[in-house]
Amino acid sequence: MNREFELGGINHLALVCSDMRRTIDFYSGVLGMPLIKTIELPGGMGQHFFFDCGGGDCVAFFWFPDAPDAVPGVSAPKTRPEQGELLSAVGSMNHVAFHVPVERFEEYRTRLKEKGVEVSPILNHDDSEFGVAPKMRDGVFVRSFYFQDPDGILLEFACWTRAFTDADVSHTPKTAADRRPAKESNAAPA
């Protein structure tokens, strides 16, 4: 039993795909996971779709038009989202979000800070133009903050703040054809 934090399992595991339509076909069509939330990221940055994987937990996928092709060893963003880094490679693990009770969310952030863990500001994720509200308000569907493990793996404590409806799945999935060409590398082939 965890005596430090009342973790309720994995809130969502966020991975990166090259083709959102193909991902929906596999996770919903093959594995039977309902698509419960779609997000169009601000500024054409991409998409973020959530699938119910049971027990209130989700597996989620980012689609980034500029995502590098999958490269072994490229496993997570360089920094936390509020520091300007969200991009990671197709097939990589972007971050792991642990579900925490909404009533203990802010307490847990304080507790981690007291333990010397550097944490991001609280993000109130909503469907506004930039995807984040400055304060808790109607429309916020999840509250979260980010931190990294000693190897730089991006972690998140998150709590849902409302139930999803059919209206939360409203974006047309991007495909591999919508991606921008990979940038040329100056590195010599291995």
UniProtKB/TrEMBL annotation:
Compositionally biased intervals (Basic and acidic residues): 170-183
Domain of life where this protein originates: Bacteria
Record-linked PROSITE patterns: VOC
Ranges for domain VOC: 9-160
SUPFAM superfamilies: Glyoxalase/Bleomycin resistance protein/Dihydroxybiphenyl dioxygenase (SSF54593)
InterPro entries per UniProt: Glyas_Bleomycin-R_OHBP_Dase, Glyas_Fos-R_dOase_dom, GlyoxalaseI/FosfomycinResist, VOC_core
Region entry Disordered, spans: 170-190
PANTHER family hit by this protein: GLYOXALASE FAMILY PROTEIN (PTHR21366), METALLOTHIOL TRANSFERASE FOSB (PTHR21366:SF31)
Name used for this protein in its record: VOC family protein
Protein source organism: Actinomadura sediminis
Lineage: Bacteria, Bacillati, Actinomycetota, Actinomycetes, Streptosporangiales
